[in-house]
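Open question from group meeting: does this chain pack into something compact, or does most of it stay loose? Before anyone orders reagents, we agreed to write out a predicted structure and look at it together. Recording both the input and the output here so the notebook holds the full record.
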Amino acid sequence: SMVVDNKAGASGMLGPNELVGAKPDGYTLSQLTIGVARLPHMQKMQFDPLKDFTYIACLTGYTFGMVVKADSPLKSLKDVVDYAKANPGKFTYASPGQGTTPHLAVEEFAFKAGIKLQHVPFKGFADGMQAVLGGHVMAQSDSTGWSGQVDGGAVRLLATYGSKRTKKWASVPTLNELGFDTISDSPFGIGAPKDMDPALTQRLHDAFKKAIEDPAVLATFEKYDQSVIYMNTRDYTAFIKDQYAKEKLLIERLGLSMKA
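Structure tokens returned:
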């Protein structure tokens, strides 16, 4: 059995902080978001992601997308690019905060498209959606909190950010297929304190892998528009190392690093 202790806030870093100094006995685990590879480049953290964790397995990821109000004249991402080129810095979009994946994915897209957009960070999804519906910003970039508004016709989904189209909104293209070389699945997994015995790591890995093959778990993923993004211990560890280097370059280019 497992006891889940939800530690909300701090961009999802309260859980990883618990791993620092904990015994690697398998009794203290944490969800690890992509923020563990990103935030150390932006602010002082309690951990070094390359030294302080045992990466057990990557399990799933979020679906992100950009929406505009239903009556917006912008009907496609091409319209957004055309508008932004004609009106540099005038296209405004909401996100759930500075340095979050919905923020950085759009900035990466804008960089590849050769356009400049105006980012408007909010404290969370609800505030950003209200800003879109109220006409205070032109778009919102976020995870699928917008699902109900899209399905209800209040907003239009222009693009999603994953490596492939979503099952639920199969007619909506991805940023990548539109030619902007941007993929943000924001994969996350399970980690433990550093120096865990390999045999125990394998045992935990096998348990979590079995869990994401369970039909009930897959149904829950689908309910929240999440896909399976599985990586074993070796691949997940290598992914974080590679992502850490990529995030450093992106954060520096956007002027968001600690030294910027």
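Observations to bring back to the group:
The domain at 10-61+186-253 is CATH 3.40.190.150 (D-Maltodextrin-Binding Protein; domain 2).
The longest strand covers residues 53-61.
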